[in-house]
Batch of 4 targets.
Target 1
Amino acid sequence: MEPGLKAILRGLLGGVLVLAASATSAVCAERWGVVLLHGKSGSENQLALYDKPLAAMGFLSARPQMCWSRQRIYDKPYLDCLGAIDEAIASLKARGVARIVIAGQSLGANAALAYAALHDKEVAGVIALAPAHYPEFISKRPEIAGEIERARQLTASGQGERKTTFTDINGGVAITVNATPKTYLSFLASDSPSVMPGNAARLKVPLLVVSGTKDKSQRGKDYIFGHAPAHAMNRYVTVAADHRDTPKAGREAVLTWLRDLQGK
C-alpha cells in the first residue's frame, strides 16, 4: 500500500474513533432524574429516603404531591392527577435532566405504570415499589360495589361533578373520601385507567418491580410483571418487608438497577 494511502486511512480511522468516543462521552454525560410518587393517603416526603443516595449517584429527583395525598384525596380524576408528573418532569428538564425514570410506591407505582404507558417518549424506565390499588378487584367488594353504583347513578342524573362522600379501601381498611362521582369512578371502577396489568402490557421501557414477601397487598410476579413486554432490563425483586417498608428494604436493588440502566 502506498504511504500516502496509509496516511489517509489512518486519518479516517482516527476520525471514526474520535466520533465514537464523543458519542460515548455524550451518553455518559446525559443527566438522569427520578420522579418519586407517594402512595394513597401519603405525602411527598414518603420517598425522601431516596434523595441522598440518588444525589450521590448524580441523579436529580422530584417528589410531587399527588391528588391522592392525605390532604387532597381525591380532588381530581385519575388521569388529571398525572399532570403533576408532567410538572415534575418539566422541573427536572429545566435543571438539565435528559433521561427520566418514574418510580412510585403503592398507588404511586400504579400511577408510574399508567404514566409510562401513556407517555413512553418521556420516560426511560419505571420502578414499581409495592405496587397496589386494584380497581378490578376492589370494585367487587360489596361496600365498594354499592358506592360505584351510587356514583354511576349520580353521574347519570347530572351530578357527576358534585362532591360527596364515598367509601374507599386503603391497606384493606375502609376509609372515607370526598370526591365527585366522576373522580371516584376514575379510581375505583373496574374499567378505571389505573388497572395495572393493562398499563404494564403497554410499556415500551424497562420495568423494575420490588415486592415485599410480608406485604399482603401483593399479587405475585405474574399479575403486573408478567404482562410487561420482554426487555433485557426488566427485573422482579422480592424483599423481606411489609407494604410500608418495601421502599427502604428495596433501596439497594433500586440503586443497582438504575446504575445498570445508565450502563455504568
Target 2
Amino acid sequence: MGSGGALHLNSLQMDTNLKMKLVLGIESSCDETGVALVQMRETGVPVLLAHALYSQIDMHQAYGGVVPELASRDHIRRVIPLTEQVLAEAGLTLKNIDVVGFTRGPGLAGALLVGAGVACALGAALGKPVLGVHHLEGHLLSPFLSADPPEFPFLALLVSGGHTQLMRVDGVGRYELLGETIDDAAGEAFDKSAKLMGLGYPGGPALSRIAEQGDPASFKLPRPLLHSGNLDFSFAGLKTAVMVQAKKLVAARDEADGAQQTGVFETLPLQTRANLAASTEAAIVDVLVRKSLAALKQTGLKRMVVAGGVGANRSLRARLNAECARQLVRVHYPELDLCTDNGAMIALAAAMRLQSGQQQASEVYAFDVKPRWPLDQLS
C-alpha cells in the first residue's frame, strides 16, 4: 500500500486562493481495494494527494482465480482502514471531503455493492454528495494523473481484465466504440495461457517475466482477426493454440524419455517454457499493436492512450512506442502503479466529470450497481 502518481500534495504549494474540489474515490470492482484523494484545480490540473491499495492476490492464489464471495468480504475489511490511511497521508479529515466517488460498475456485483454502500453511507453521514463512476472510464482517464498527460481527442486502447477495446475519445463522456473483443480479452489470454503453463495466479505478469528469457519466434501461433478488415479482437483461438502446443511438447518429451505420460507442462525445461511464453506474448502484442495502428489510420488521430493492467506490459509499450514514433503519434500511459485497478482513477474520473459539467453529484443516497455496463453507453 502507498501513494503514487505524478502530482502530489507534498510536491506542490497549495494556492488557497484557488477553490479546489476534494474527491474521495473508492474502487472495489474485483480483487483490489483502492482509496484515493484527488483535487481538481480550477485550471483543470488534477492533483493526487494520496492513494492506497490492497491487493487480494495472495488470498485468491489458492483457488487459481478470484472467488467473488471472498473478494466482497475482504473489501469490507479493507476499505475503512485504507480511507483512514489516505486521509492521514494527506493531512486531512473526512470533513474536508467535497464529494465521494465510487465504482458503480462494471465488476463483481457483491464487490461493487461494498464500495457503493460505504461511499453512500459516508456521503449521508457527512452531508456530502456522491457520484457513481464507470470503472473503465477511470482507466481511460488515468493518464491525466501522469507526468505526460494527454489532450483530447485521442484513440484509447483499453486492455483491462476482461476488456479489450479501441475507443475514440473526444472529451469526458464522449466515447465512440471502434472495436472490442468478441470472446476472450487480452488479459484473459495472458492469464489463461499462463495457467496452462503452470505459472499460477495472476498469470499475466508471471508469463511476461518468463517470456523475457525466451525466443518469441520459437512457435508459430495464430493472430486471430488480424486481417478481418475491422477493429475487433479475438483471443480465444490463441489460447486454444497455446494449449495444443503445450500438450504436444509434453507428449513429445514423455515419448522421448519413455516415461508414462504426465501431462505436466511445468516439468518441461525452462527454456522450452520461456520460448512458448515469449511466442504467446508476441502474438497478443502483435494483434494489439496492429489493430491500434489500423484505428489510428482510420480515425486520423495523432494521439493515443493505453490504459488498464495489460498496459503495463513492457513488450507492448516498447512495440507501440516504436511503431507510433514512426507514425508521428504521441502515446500516453498511466504511471505504472496506476495501471491496475485503483482508487485514484475513480476519484479522478469523478472530478473530471464534475468539472466538465458532464454529471452532477447526488445527495440521494439510495444506490445500485451495474455489473455489466458498456462504456459506449455512458453519456
Target 3
Amino acid sequence: MAQLLQPETGTTDPRILRSRRMLMDALAILLIKKEFEDISVQEIADEATLNRATFYLHYPDKNALLQAMTGVRFRDLIERRAITFTDCHGALRSIALGVCDYLAESTGCPTQLARMPPQISIIPVVEDMFKEGLALHGTAPGVDAALMATTAAWAVFGAARRWFQTPNRIPAEEMAAKIEIMVSPVLFGASQ
C-alpha cells in the first residue's frame, strides 16, 4: 500500500491541474453559500469561470468533484502529519489516523464538508486507497477485493467516528493504533 498517496488527478499537465483546482475552489465557495444538493454543475462552472463542458471533461457529476475535493483534503492532512506508508500495516494505521484527523478538522471547516454524509465524502476516498493496496498485493482466491475495501473503509470510518464522538477521547495516534488492531484481521486476512 505504499503507493496510496498518488494524487487524484493522475496527471501533471498544469492546465488540467489548474482547471481541477478552479472547480474545487468554486465548489468550496458555493458550499459556504448554499446546500450541496442545491448547487448545480452550471453554477460550479460559472463560479470557476469555466464552461460546463470543461467541468464534464474532468468530472462526471458534482458528487465526483466533491469526492475529489475530499480526497485532496484528506491527502493534505496525511501529508501535513508527514505520515508515510512503509508497509501495509503502517498504511492502515496511517489511513486510520488520517480519518481521525479529517473528522477532528471537519468541525472547524468553514464549509458544509463537516455535514456531508460519509458515503459521498471520506469513505469513497478511503475505499479507493484500500482498493489500490489490495490490487498491489492481491487477495485470496474467491475474495472480492472491492467488497473487502468497502468493509475496511466503513470499519475505519465507524471506529474513528465513535472516537470523535467520545468526550475526553484518547489522542488520535492511540485510536489509530486501536483501529489498526481491529481492522487488520479483516483486511489482511483476505490477502494472499
Target 4
Amino acid sequence: MVTAFAEMLKRHAAAGRVAWIGVRPGRREDVLTPGSADITLAGLGGDHAKKGKRAVTLIQAEHLPVIAALAGLEKVQPEQLRRNLVVSGINLAALRKATLRAGTAVVRITGPCPPCSRMEEVLGHGGYNAMRGHGGWYAEVLQPGRVALGDSVTFLQDAE
C-alpha cells in the first residue's frame, strides 16, 4: 500500500505553465517583467537573489485571487508579491523537495517562501496574513537554462 501511495504522490494531472516572469534588480526597486530570462545558479539574470536554496521564487497563479480575496482587494498583481515565476496548472505545494524543469532550467523546490512585513504596505492592512500559506516557494537551481512565458513546468523527480 505504501508503494501505491508513493506513486500517487508523483502523479500530476498535467504540466504547469509559466504565466509570468519577474526580475527584482534590487531591494525595493521596481520589478521588471521580461518575456523570458536566463536562470543561472544565482537565480534569474538581473535579479538580486543569490546562489543557494532561495535562488528562485515561485508562486501559484491560482493563489493570486485567494490572496486578493483575503486582503479585501479586487485583484493582486504578481509584481506586488515580488516572486520570480508565477506558475499555473500544477500544484507547487505538492512538489516540495521535488525537482522540476521550467523551460530548459532544472530547479528543486526547497521550502515555503513566507510573506514579509512589506505585504502590509503593498496589500494594505491584513496583507501579511492574506499571504500566509499562499506566499509561494523557494527553489535552488540545479541546472541553468532559460525560461519564457508559456514554457512548461514539469515534475522530474523527488529530491533525495
